[in-house]
Amino acid sequence: MLALTAALSYGVSDFIGGVASRRVAALRVVIVSYPLSVLIVLLIAPFVGGSLSTAGLLWGAASGVAGGLAVWWFYLALASGPMAVVSPLTAVLLAGIPVGVGLAAGERPAALAYGGIALALVAVVLVSKESPDETTSEITGGRDMRFTKTVAWLTVGSGVAFAFAFIFLHKIPEGGGLWPVLASRATATVVVWGVALAARQFSPPHGEPLKLAIYVSFLDVIATTATMYAFQGGLLSLVSVIASLYPAATVMLAMVMLGERVGRLQQVGMVLALAAVALIAGA
C-alpha cells in the first residue's frame, strides 16, 4: 500500500509539475518545490519522532543527491532529445536496476511476484511512451529532436541516478523517523540550486506556477516518505517496481483533467500496470 501511495504521489506530482513547466522552465519549479519540501519535513519531523543516526542521514543525503542529479539530467535530455525515446528508457532503468540489485543481493520474491515484475517492466515502458504534442513543438521551436550520443548519456545517467535514489532510500535503517527524508530533500535542494545558478535560471516562478510548485512540494514529501517506509517493510525488488509505475497516474490525470489523447500503447501499459500491482499484491 505504501509503495502504491508513493507511485500515486509521484504521478500526481509529475502531472502538476508538468502543467507548471508548460508555463515556465522546469528548473524554476523545482528550485521552489525542493526547499519548500525541506521546510515541510522540518516542521513535521519532531512530531513523528525517531532518532538521528549517521547511517540514516548519510543514506538519505545520498538519495537526495542522486535524485537531484537525475532530475537535472532528465530535463537536459528532454530539452534536446525525442521524448518518445528518453522517457521510456529512463523509466525502464528506474524500474529495472533496483530489481536487479535486489535479486543480486539475495531477495527471492514469491513466484507470482516475478510475473508482476515482468508485467510492470513492460507497463512502465508503454505508459511512458509519449509522442510530442503542440506544447513540445513550441518549446523545441520545431527542431528535429535527435537521440544523439549526448542525449543518450544524459538519458542513461538520469535513469541510473533515479534508480540509485531508490536504492539509497532502501538502505535507510528503521527508527530514524523523517530525519533521513529531511537530509534527502536538503541535499536535493543544494544540487538543483547549484544547477540553477550555473544555468542562470535561478528565478522563482510567480502566479499560478508558484502555486503549483507549492503543491508539488507537499506531494514530494508524501512520495519520498512513503517510499522510504515501504522499503523498510518490503523488498527492494518489489517496492521499487510498484513505485516506478507512477507514469500511469500522470497519464490518467492528463487524460481526465486536460483531455489529452492517450495512445493505444499507453492504454495497454495502464492495463498491464494494474495487473502487475494485483500480481505483486497477491504474492
TrEMBL record:
Taxonomic classification: Bacteria, Bacillati, Actinomycetota, Actinomycetes, Mycobacteriales
Ranges that cross the membrane: 25-45, 57-78, 85-105, 111-129, 150-170, 182-200, 212-231, 237-258, 265-282
Keyword list, A-Z: Membrane, Transmembrane, Transmembrane helix
Organism: Antrihabitans spumae
Stated name of the protein: EamA family transporter
Family: Belongs to the EamA transporter family.
The EamA domain, residue ranges: 152-281
A Pfam short name: EamA
SUPFAM superfamilies in alphabetical order: Multidrug resistance efflux transporter EmrE (SSF103481)
